[in-house]
Write a structure and sequence with these properties.
aminotransferase, 299 residues, alpha+beta, 2 domains, Aminotrans_IV, seven-stranded antiparallel beta sheet, D-amino Acid Aminotransferase, Chain A, domain 2, single chain, 30% strand, D-amino Acid Aminotransferase, Chain A, domain 1, EC 2.6.1.42, 7 helices, amino-acid biosynthesis, branched-chain amino acid biosynthesis
Length: 299
């Protein structure tokens, strides 16, 4: 039997459709439309020292994600922020990961579900970052995935929609089975896209290069890192990035709410491979990031 604590049976409270309810009572029906059709949207947000980091940007994207997949959230961004604050308070959390999620209800299980009720829940829990666990400079190893990110005209790629994460699950499982930490996905043209859940950034001298987010979710954490880099006098560029260019980079790291900044030390795939050290520029950005979140930069 696994000793992993399941997410459906924990202590604490979850905000569900406007009220705090016991964690193990925050449930939905098996005939819920978004369970069948993958239409849930969600966010991943961090709280540091009790403050919700970059909340305005996250809730703006949450609202936009719902609009892209065809529905309107029944709560304003301010109401959702207050709900997050209530969840942190009720669960006595200061440093936490926060997961707002919205979905279509059980009024329909056909493809069309315009009259389905829109539900929203917010949970928060203690999920230490690599930095909090002393692993901020522990590099990760990537396997090149056979899965590709779809074009923006074939999927709602600008939405943080649950249905799109199946690709990441399949790619991550395959990479883990081969002993890698994560997978790197390409776009339909064979250029670098992202990992299964984070954006990737190359260091070329004093310049940061990131693949343009034209078929995957643009990272809010990346935008914050870019702002920190700009203040430090670094050059920034977003464009198509080839595998060959990635392999030739001086340093490589990934960014995302769950992991903040984490170096990449290896990429391996059919007929391709590269290794990098955890370089000084990546280390400097990690330090700057930690300082910025504790100072609670403007949202």
């Amino acid at each position: 039997m696994s000793d992993v604590l399941a997410f459906d049976d924990r202590d604490g409270l979850i905000w569900l459709d406007g009220a705090l309810v016991p964690w193990n009572e925050a449930r939905l029906h098996v005939m819920t439309h978004s369970l069948h059709a993958g239409g849930a949207v969600f966010e991943g947000i961090r709280a540091y020292d009790g403050g919700i980091f970059l909340s305005n940007v996250h809730f703006s994207r949450f609202q936009r994600s719902a609009e892209i997949v065809g529905y309107t959230l029944p709560y304003s961004s301010l109401e959702l922020l207050k709900a997050c604050e209530a969840v942190l308070w009720a669960n006595e959390l200061k440093d936490a990961y926060i997961r707002p999620i919205a979905w279509r209800g059980s009024e329909s299980v056909t493809v069309a579900a315009r009259n389905a009720t829109i539900h929203v829940a917010i949970a928060a829990w203690d999920w230490p970052t690599p930095a909090a666990e002393g692993r901020s400079t522990t590099g990760i190893r990537l396997q090149l995935s056979s899965w590709r990110r779809p074009r923006a005209d074939t999927a709602p790629t600008a939405s943080k929609c649950s249905g799109l994460y199946m690709i990441g699950t399949l790619a991550r499982h395959a990479a883990n089975d081969e002993g890698f930490d994560d997978a790197l996905l390409l776009d339909i043209d064979g250029d670098v896209a992202e990992t299964t859940a984070t954006n990737i950034i190359l260091v070329e001298g004093r310049k940061l290069v990131s693949p343009v987010a034209d078929c995957f979710l643009d990272s809010i954490t990346k935008r914050h890192v870019f702002a920190l880099a700009q203040r430090a006098g670094l050059e920034l560029e977003e464009r198509k990035v080839s595998l060959e260019e990635l392999c030739a980079a001086d340093e490589v790291f990934v960014v995302g709410t769950s992991i903040e900044i984490q170096p990449v030390v290896e990429l391996k795939g059919p007929a391709i491979g590269a290794q990098w050290s955890v370089g000084p520029l990546t280390q400097s950005l990690i330090d700057n990031f930690q300082n910025s979140v504790r100072q609670q930069c403007p949202a």
